[in-house]
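Structure representation.

___
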Amino acid sequence: MVQSVELLLDDAAEAEIRRQWHLLAEAGIPSPTPEHRPHITVAVAREIWPRLDRALSERPFRPLPVRLGGLLIFGAHHPILVRLVVPTEELLTLHRRIAAIVEPCPGVPSNVRPGAWTPHVTLARRLKPDRVAAAIDAVAADRDSTATVVGIRRWDGDRRTEWPIAPRG
């Protein structure tokens, strides 16, 4: 499994993503479970050492405005439908800071490193290739929207637990 560092969205943006998950579910596209929380993953590793939590939380956190943009498809065999988070210098700076802390950990994939990371919020995973068009149709009418990053959490996929790094709100 993996562990990650994730940015949490404000209540309105979270509700908007959940609405899109609902539209996908109505179209027969599997969506995240209700306990899953919309987020932007900024770092991933096979294991993020617990001692790094302190380094991750040392700098004061300030809410960060972001824009949720267009749709993207990642992968071919088991496509993933995502909503782009439009990169800004402030978002990329936060990503670089977190990535530098997590970099020494084992199993950091190349696609989350600075210069290769595509910020996004996942809408649907493991799509069957013949369902990609239906998934896009379900949410394509939605336009860009604003959101605010209101917190940072750590996620442990092995234990299926989360904990705050920077308080929400």
In short: The chain has a mean pLDDT of 92. The longest helix spans residues 11-26. Strands lie at 3-9, 39-45, 64-74, 80-85, 120-124, 145-156, 161-166.
